[in-house]
Amino acid sequence: MEQHKSWLVYTIGMLTAFLCGAVLFLIGFFPASYSVAEKESTVPEGRPTALLGMELTPPPPAYDSFVLLLVDALRDDFPDATSMPVAYSRACEKLKLHVDIPTVTMPRLKSITTGTLSNFIDIALNVGHTEQMQDSFLHRLKQQNRVVSFAGDHTWVKLFPSEFTRQVENHDSFYVNDFYEGDRNVTKTLETELERSDWSLLILHYLGLDHIGHVEGNASPRVPLKLKEMDEVVKKILDHKSFPNVLLMLTGDHGMADGGGHGGNTPAETLVPLYLYYNNCSKTPSASKRYNQIDLAPTLSVLLSVEIPTLSIGCLIPEMLQSLSLEHQLYAYFYNAHHLLNKARVKFGHEIVHRSDYYTWYQNATLLHKKLLRPLREGDGGGASQVYYQNAKLNYMRVAREISDLLSESLVKFDYGFIAVGLALTTSTSLHIVISVLYLDLTEQLQLDGLKVGQLWLSVIAAVVLNYTSHALDIIMTSSTLYSILLLVPISIAVYLTIDVAQALLKIALPPLYTRRLKISIPLPLPLLACYAIRTLTLGSSSFIEFEYNTWYYLGNTLILLTAFRTLRWRITKTNVELNGRHLYTIASTCLWQMRKVLVVLMLLTLMRYIHRLQAIRSTVVIFSMLLLWARLHRHSQLPQSLASGAALFMVYCFRGLNGQVLFFDVPSHMAAKLMVPTLVIFWCCLALVLMLGYRAALPQAHSFGKVPPTGALLQLLQTNLTSSLLLAALLQRVHNILLLPVLLVALQQTYKLCDVYGTSARKFSVRLVHVYKIIMTIFLARMFFFYQGNSNSLSTIDLTPGYIGQTNYNPSIVAIFVTLNTYSADIHAFLYLVVHTLRSDLRSVGIMQLHPPYSIAADSLIAPLYAALIMLPAAFYLCLLVGFRYHLFIYSVFSPKVLYDCYTVLVFYLVFLVTSLYFKLFKHDA
Amino acid sequence: MVSRFDQQKTKHQLFHVSLSLATILICMAYMQYRRNWAHLGSFWDSLVVPIVFLGELLKVVLARFYGKVEDGVLTAKQRQKKNSYFTPRELLGGFTLQFLCTLLYAFICIILGAPVLGNYEQTFVLALLMTLLTVSPTVFLLGGGGALQVCFCEKPDFVTKCEDTALNLFKYNALGGILGAWAGSVVAPLDWGRDWQAYPIPNVIGALLGSALGNIYACTHVLYATARVYMTKKRT
């Protein structure tokens, strides 16, 4: 007889620690999620016109015309004296630009035109659709009614739909087999524009090189041909008669990896050339300087004589300012430093900025600048002025570079300290709970489920040392001392659990002499483990994450089919032996008929995949769903509770009818609006009545103390919870999704019966085997129904409508609760049903009597910890994967929303588990 | 005296495995000859199903050929079973069993994700191929009733030694085919954009490759047993 021990407190502790680690990980992985959103009003507009009391005048445009020649996927080593001889030999400056991740076109165009970097929020919220830009130097040019012409990639027009005076776009920019057609159109437009003289900026975006790389790789023989074609384009611009006062810039939006693609962070992808061509240049063969791509936007803004975009965090490129006079150069440096200093004030606060080194440099630079203004204006080019000029310029550049780096880091950098702590905590908790569940003997020997004071003190001391060392080495940076002290708690927990896990693993790997090897206390069925492992391993592919519902449908149905056929074979074989081999056809037919309910469940699960196609008959479906749901609830309720449930469901139907979603009496619209609120009020009253009746039946009464059986109190409470949750979900779900509620209950019930029969047919019968099967089947069915509702791993499929049902004003808490209940209704109901089923059932229906330990004991000693372990382990594995994939092209569009879903799933399970554990604590003597 | 080396059985096993692998190689060569994959989903346009059918028939003929040697030592039940092989009742039972298995496989394909309201021809082709790889060899060898008995009894009395050898090898073929078809779905969600990712092409190819792997495993098993006997004989 196994001694019963409750695992609820231990499981709650593990879940709490896991969620704490997940929060730390998310803080470190998404730094933008806690940065303060900048508002334009906090950064002063316009260009400065005064410097320490002296008046300044913004300079006019440096050139009559500007040409931005953007060759998609132009790698830094592509242009050379052989492949592009004209461009290479006639370039005035040959610079390099560093491109930030992700190296794909749209974020790069944003960086080029605004001088800012893309962060997770910027990219995740634009998943699947291109939002038009709000501010860039193109917007500034339009405000000044300057003429801008564009030809090339369709992405520009989506980003800037109304900023171009004339535009010629390729409508099929993603048709990678087009090597030449789109580029020929761009060149034709170039020839047309060169004959005009009214444009200030001409943007040309050639896509052929990128397409060649995608299809044939970077070593394709077509690449030299394409580069030759681009060289001829440069020659055409330079040889034109209007070249005398034109600035031509040849660059790429991103590089090209070996193999022809892009999107990652290899040097070939993140380094592009920037070649400058203008009149009267010296062509000095200087060393190749390197700048950031975001530096192009403020530099171009200055040269174009427009304001620097508000979002810009770039510096200026000195080589592009050579054509300006010394006074105007100093003005440009001052303007950009001033702009960045204002952004730093908004970001880091006035006090920190004033105490920083770069503020001192800024003050020195402005003082020198002021001294220089009069000599520069009077034409005094003496030696002292040159020294002052160089000093002011260097100080301005240092200020800009320092602030730009700081702002860039706060936008993009992963906080590896928080990631490490979060990862250690989630991994150690997952391994800890898995080892505790699998090796009960080990749990008792090492007291894994208790608290050891000595180890606790050791962990705290180690955490103090680790924390101090991390802060000293700047691995972890917190904004205040209080956060540093608070960080001790998760580090201590992680160290404590890691010591436990290490001890346990040592015990497992090195069994002591003369002692039997530790036995796994829970049977691990191979098909279940295989399906679970397959599902977990598919998290490494972005395609499998995007289509994760297919994985769950496939594996879940496979498990049910496998269990059903093994049970069927066992039944036929057993009956055949009993009947001595006669009447085999009859036996097979009878056994197959007995399995008809499982087949019906499988067909229902297939039908649920197409539940959104039942819109045409949704009224009938809703009525059928509600009747079926009421029948399921009626089976385990008393008469008053059944009446209240039926009334609540009827109110839900009336509410849908008044909304016009199902067939209903023809009510005028103003009358429908009036009746909406009373309908909902009656629904809530019925729900409250269901809860009250259920709780009253469960609570002991003074006058009927001897009559109410105390063993059913806990079961009654949990059943009431399940009923109320289902009724509320019926109100929140979409019309065609209401059918999912009764189908989930039917599927769970038939699957549990199948597991019971299968468990008894195993060679070595074990109650734990039945439990393990039921737990994993429940998880699979819950995830299948989660995706049947229309959810996915994209943030755009979250259904926000339930949050506003019956609300007259916006309340974030209620919206969050309702949306969570609706989104995770399958997970919540499946877990509650599993616990209720375990408490209610026994295996008497399949011929097993005298169970030891009792069947329902497993509700808190096995189901809770194993369920928690099976939810936490894939999530921890996925966090490790996420760190490995942090530079993946789809890290923000595919992998990151998935991690939010995973952590939120654990949180939802945690809250449901807390409520359930509370009831177990209150009525422990019953269980 | 060491165990007697059963040369006849080993020959039968190796011939059987060779026929299976040859069938699959011919299917692969035929697919290469067609230069596109769309025909795999068509019943009338593809020769994969007839090739597999002929391969299974040849294996049954092989079992019959090796079974002639032991005609003189048959028991009464075995002789009775052999005499009733071509009766109309047995033929009808065998055909019905294969038809029901094809329907069952089609049902399983739809449960696991095949379209419900379309692609009937593709589902039928895949189900038919699965039936040919799993159930048809046993039905061809033992008839409908015999196949049912073999599936749900430990070891029926009427099964001869050669038939037992063939049944063991059929088991590897069936298991490999089922696992291969199931694993073939792994390429469906990937975004590679190849034309062979369309249903049911990965499952058909997966079934063929899976049965090939099953046969290779069986062949390894046979060769290992042979080598062990040879080494034992050499040591003595």
From TrEMBL, chain A:
Name of the protein in question: FI19823p1
- Family membership noted in the UniProt record: Belongs to the PIGG/PIGN/PIGO family. PIGG subfamily.
What is the topology of this protein in the membrane according to its UniProt annotation? Multi-pass membrane protein
Q: Where in the cell is it found?
A: Endoplasmic reticulum membrane
Q: What species does this protein belong to?
A: Drosophila melanogaster (Fruit fly)
The record, for PANTHER family, names:
GPI ETHANOLAMINE PHOSPHATE TRANSFERASE 2, PHOSPHATIDYLINOSITOL GLYCAN-RELATED
Q: What is its main location?
A: endoplasmic reticulum
One record GO biological process? GPI anchor biosynthetic process
List the keywords (alphabetical).
Endoplasmic reticulum, Glycoprotein, GPI-anchor biosynthesis, Membrane, Transferase, Transmembrane, Transmembrane helix
Kindly name one Pfam family recorded for this protein. Answer: PIGO_PIGG
Please state the pathway this protein functions in, per its UniProt record: Glycolipid biosynthesis; glycosylphosphatidylinositol-anchor biosynthesis
Q: Does the keyword Transmembrane apply?
A: yes
Spell out the InterPro entries in the cross-references.
Alkaline_phosphatase_core_sf, Phosphodiest/P_Trfase, PIG-G_N, PIGG/GPI7, PIGG/GPI7_C
Regions crossing the membrane? 7-30, 416-440, 452-470, 482-506, 526-545, 551-572, 614-631, 643-664, 676-699, 771-790, 810-836, 857-879, 899-920
> GO molecular function: any one?
CP2 mannose-ethanolamine phosphotransferase activity
> Which SUPFAM superfamilies does UniProt cross-reference here?
Alkaline phosphatase-like (SSF53649)
Which parts of the sequence belong to the GPI ethanolamine phosphate transferase 2 C-terminal domain? 531-913
Give an example GO cellular component term for this record.
Answer: endoplasmic reticulum membrane
TrEMBL record, chain B:
InterPro entries, per the entry: GPI_biosynthesis_protein_Pig-F (IPR009580)
Membrane topology qualifier: Multi-pass membrane protein
Copy the pathway line from the protein's UniProt record.
Glycolipid biosynthesis; glycosylphosphatidylinositol-anchor biosynthesis
Q: Which keywords accompany this UniProt record?
A: Endoplasmic reticulum, GPI-anchor biosynthesis, Membrane, Transmembrane, Transmembrane helix
Which residue windows are coiled coil?
none
Q: Does the keyword Membrane apply?
A: yes
Enumerate the subcellular locations listed in this protein's record, separating them with semicolons: Endoplasmic reticulum membrane
Q: Name one Pfam family in it.
A: PIG-F
Question: What is a single cellular component term in the Gene Ontology annotation?
Answer: endoplasmic reticulum membrane
Enumerate the Gene Ontology biological process terms.
GPI anchor biosynthetic process
Locate the transmembrane regions by residue number.
12-31, 37-58, 91-118, 124-152, 172-192, 204-225
Query: What's the protein here called?
Result: Uncharacterized protein C1450.15
